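By way of example, we now present a protein record of this kind:
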Amino acid sequence: MPLSETNKPQSQSIEDLIAQLDSPTVISQGESPNRKCLKGKRTGTSFVRHNSNGTNSVPLLQKNIITSKKYTKNLKSLNNRGLPKKNGAGGKHTWGAPGCELTDYYIDSKDPNYDSEDGPDILVTNYREIDVDDFDRDIKPLVLEFFQNGDTIEVIDQLKTCRLRSRPHLVSYLVQIALENNNTCRELMSRLLRDLTYEILTEPDYSLGFDILLKNLNEITLDNPDAAEKTGTFIARAIADKVINRRYIDRFYDNQSVEEENMPDLKDSLVFKSVESARVLVTMNNHLNQLSHIWGNKGGFLAVTELVDKIKEIIQELYDSRDVDEAIRCLKELNVPHFHHELVFEVK
């Protein structure tokens, strides 16, 4: 028998064996699961076959990736390949991601250089209740300081820390303090009443406050004889500043509004004088432009050039009349203690 015929069954069995190794192993029902399967030797890394068209298919790159130094060093590069590190905020010579200067500065409490004083300041406000009897102790020093610096914002900030039990009485008390001072302080008080609108006080508070003031005119005129007329000027100025409505004056002459409760009696001579004074001022100034300067521009409200001219007029009048008392009176009425050096300069 030829040698080729004897080797033919052996060669066919080897080819069948290789075909069985390449094809997936399927265990039939009759075969035992503990059957030993012959495996061929292959060099390199074995791959797992997957159905790329199935519903649960997984990308082949993530499953059959070859382990190397490149991928073991930075595994995040599989998901974000090609993107800058830390969204452009990493690396040398970088100042951070675009727009990071607009965000709040973050302070880490676990930082070794952390200082508790660098943290955000937490303002704890203790509201104190102020009654009418406490106005002389708490409100009056604040108003007297306001007459010196003219800073309405500071007064508003201080009043916001207080819990006022009666706001109409506060309006009446502020006007009473202004009536005891000169026109410069009255101008400052009118500006303060205007700035307090919608910050702390409302229009009903002003209306009730002026009602309380009109009812107490009999006591106020004992120390200030012209308090009735000046109170009418305050009411007219409040109408010009849109603190109260003009309806406040008109209701005194309306027959239907006269019967309101807690309304000042117009039959009182002082109340009538005050209300009539306010009505005349508002009627004469239809556009209410002149009422904004009804107290006059004196003291710190004047420009420097105007103050210099006033000082020169006082000195010239002193040279002409030789009346020192009149010059002192005019200088006090000007109310510019911070500008008295100009008097010494002009005299020399």
